[in-house]
Structure formats: structure tokens, C-alpha cells
Amino acid sequence: MPREHRILITGASGFVGAWLVRELEARRLQRNIDLTVLTVGHGEASAFTADISDKSQAVALIGATRPSAVIHLAAIAAPADARRAPDRAWDVNFRGTMNLAYATMELAPNARFIFAGSSESYGASFIEKAGAPIDEDTALKPMSVYGATKAAADMLLGQLAHDGLKTIRFRPFNHTGPGQTEAYVVPAFAKQIAEITAGLRAPTLSVGNLSGFRDFLDVRDVVRVYADAALGSLRPNIVGKAFNLSSGRPTQIREILDLLIELSKLQVDIEIDPERLRSSEVPIASGRNEAALEAFGWKPQIELRDTLNDVLAEWHLRVKSR
Ligand SMILES: C[C@H]1O[C@H](OP(=O)(O)OP(=O)(O)OC[C@H]2O[C@@H](n3cnc4c(=O)[nH]c(N)nc43)[C@H](O)[C@@H]2O)[C@@H](O)[C@@H](O)C1=O
Questions:
Q1: Of 97, 149, 171, 174, which is best to mutate to test ligand 1, by the most ligand atoms within 8 angstroms of its C-beta?
Q2: What is the pTM of this model?
Q3: Are 214 and 174 in contact (CB under 8 A)?
Q4: Which secondary structure element, helix H or strand E, spans residue 8, and what is its range?
Q5: pLDDT per residue over 92-116, tens digit each?
Q6: End-to-end distance of the chain based on CA atoms, in angstroms?
Q7: d(Cα 111, Cα 136) in Å, to the nearest integer?
Q8: What are the entry keywords (predicted)?
């Protein structure tokens, strides 16, 4: 008998959540699968709202939805927000994950629990490995509040796998694409470029630290593997395991900026804005992605240049329609 999928997405109204909902809806239409997408988030687009940091709300949510898979994206996702409000970041990112995971074990014990962790969990390990792409056995040594909350949740789920939780832990590296807010580097630059193009801003770009290297992905590549993890067959060697989502190719932020400027064909000055600098960050973050390839046949497909072009196009439209 074909399986019935009831996929609960937390953080469904966020940047990644919106793309994931689109991916799942497209698969339902293309492949004619029995799939119900249950969205938890803010605003009208989401069917459910819940404060997952409150245990009783997490229990009520799982009880009401009885999912076959939970894809847990809800988080305080911007490292700067986590630094500003560490207690809230721990409440949502750690306690929220714990509440949902225990509620799933209790009320939907056959459901898979798919977790969006973060490469930020590796922290100082990136420095120790001197920029070489790291694998999933590398120690989690978070340096930021955000990284610590995600590393703790990641470890919690690793432990709960031994108690029977069918969890899959992803550790995505930086991902971007249309719909991301200007709190993140690519839209931060793209928005200013669009404003300069429209004559709404002097031709000077405000930037933060350009020297770091990050392993960038397109959000549309990332949600593909989340959907596969929820819908595909669950081999025992996947349960409880952690998977980097990365390209293995670090790109300097300076190069991202240069590419965006080149694509926009503008002449601009660059100005460092101290407000955009962070007190500490790793110089190079890059991950090996063989485990995700082996387990899910996944590797990134979208070229960085195409992603940047799409983000630029989005901001040109947004600025024009203001
Ligand atoms: C893996 C991780 O990825 C994301 O967190 P993030 O790394 O903070 O992402 P971002 O795109 O804001 O920064 C990337 C780099 O870019 C530098 N940078 C320069 N100039 C500006 C600038 O003007 N703005 C920003 N935001 N960054 C700048 C900045 O110093 C940093 O080195 C989240 O998805 C998070 O959830 C997550 O898990």
C-alpha cells in the first residue's frame, strides 16, 4: 500500500520553510503522492501556530497533527539575534527542539524527526582544521551563542536516536536565495545594489568583514534533501546520523561582493560599516559532503552565480515596486 505522508514543517513561514513548502507541493503534483503538508509558523500562510519553547504547546501540536515526519526548521536563525537575546535563543533553538522531539517520541513514535542544525556548531574546529573541508565526525566546538544552541540540540537528538527517535540531523552551511532577509550577507549587498541602480542611494556599498570564506549553497538545493529525507526510504544507516550540507568549496565574502557588483554592471565604492563587523568569527568554514551524497544521492546543483543573479533580480523588483 502506498504510504501516506503527513509532513509537519516548523518555521514554515521563514525563508527556508517557504521554499520547502513549495518543494513538497511540487512533488505532490508531479509524483501524485499522498502528501499532507502541515505548516507551523507565523501569519496566514501557516495552518498552525505554536510556541515550541512551551512544552504543553509542543505536545498539543504533535497530538493535533500526528505527523509521519517532522521537519524542524523553526529557530532564532540569525547569529546576531541569538547574541542579542541568548535566553530566547536557548529557549527556541534548544528547548524548543527538545520539546518537539520528546512529544514526537511520545505521540508519533514512528515519525522521522528531521533537524536543521548548523555548520556554526563546528566553531573552533574550523580553525583547528585550518580551512580544510571538515566531515561530520569533527568535534562540535561552537564559538557563537547561535552555534552553541544548535550544537546542543544536535547532540540531544544524537542521544535520543539511541532511545528510539528516528532522527536525521542535517548541518547545513550558509545558504541563500530569493526571499532571504537583509539580515544575511547576500541580500544585504543585493538590496544596496538595487537601491543604487534605482538612484535611491549614493554609489557606496556598506559592508562588514569581507575576508572570511563560507561554503555557500542555494536554499533550493537544501530543501530538496529535506524533502528526500522526509519522503524517501529510511535506511538504518541514516537514522541518528549527522549530514553536512555543503559544497566543499569555500568562497570569500569579498568574491561574493565582486560577483554581485559584476552582475549588476555598476561602479561602486566600498565602505566598511563597523556595525556590520562581528566580535569573533571563523576565517574559513567549509564542509565535506560525501555522507549526504552516499545517503541521499544529494549534491548541490545550482551554481553560486545563478543564485546571486536570482537574489539580485528579486531585489531589483522589490526596490522598483516600493
Ligand atoms: C551557517 C549559518 O549561516 C547563516 O549565518 P551567518 O554565517 O551569520 O550568515 P551571513 O550570510 O549573515 O554571514 C556570512 C558572512 O558574511 C560576513 N558579512 C560581511 N558583510 C556582511 C553584511 O553586511 N551583513 C551580514 N549579515 N554579513 C556580512 C559575515 O561577517 C559572515 O562572515 C545563518 O543561516 C545561520 O542560521 C547559519 O546556520
A1: 174
A2: 0.97
A3: yes
A4: strand 4-10
A5: 999 999 999 999 999 999 999 999 9
A6: 51
A7: 24
A8: Lyase
